[in-house]
Design goal:
This protein is of the alpha/beta class. The protein is 58% helix and 12% strand. The protein has 13 helices and 8 strands. Strand 5 and strand 6 form a beta hairpin. The termini are far apart.
Length: 319
Amino acid sequence: MDFYRKTTLGLFDSSQKSFIIPVYQRAYSWEKEQWETFLNDLTEQIEGQNNYFFGNILLETLKKDTKYEIIDGQQRITTLTIFIRAILNVLANRKNDILFEEFDFQTKESIYLKNGGNIKLRPVEYDRACFDAVIIDNKNNFESNTLSQDRIKKSKKFFENELNKFSTEKVLRVLEKIETTDLTVIELEGKKDSALMFELENNRGKDLTNMEKIKSYFMYQMYVYSEPEVVESNIENVSNIFKLIYLIINDFKKLNEDSVLIYHNNAYIKGYNYRTLEDVKEVFKKSNDKIDWIKGYITELHTSFSNMKKFENSKIIML
């Protein structure tokens, strides 16, 4: 496990480095409220001349100094990448400004977006075509098929519209602030270290959804109760099931994931009135075979989401 302090520029500035959002993570979920907060924080920092801290980024090393999975921080890194694209687009329309004498667009794109054939950020698989078209290749005519793809497109447009209200000098100051922003990078080796650290991070009050909390809790419990030779495979089993669940959630049109989770918990644990995730944990702690309990719970959780998705589709067809 390695801890180090980086700037945003330092994190991205390697021709071969790339970051992957694994398929068991949530797709892009930030919306206007979060985009506004992100931009307001930046503009306040440049006015106050203070150092800006972007938080912790938790990475699993796939290939040292080259390829990493983002275990925690995917929403921030995705927003940051979209924001850089928006800045470059706004500045590209002001190339005649005298301030651009030493500005190198190609270098900035190679650092943050794509260097040769190496795309710096790879979102969850089902959103990559959209992300590549809209952010990497800078197209505007991609037909979105999911809510997360729609958010990617809207985010880019939102930042372009807001940045166009700034003077060129202020846009450049915002870019400089982004590049010099501090963040703490934690590099982990393997799924078991990732599960342990993510659960510790959650216990420090991070604002996660109930689905993310229960996923990280079960991954950590697999770490605690599994025999050493099967720790990695058991944690991977949890992540694979949640990959399928998140695929379904991302395709919801009207259903709310918390509502489905409540339905599942009330149905799965018979005679049980679900109130909070602590209630689920209490039932789990009383189980005799904790590994089998987790596997049974998450398998049935996937079934519940699948059935509710079928129900939603049938209602849409009927309408």
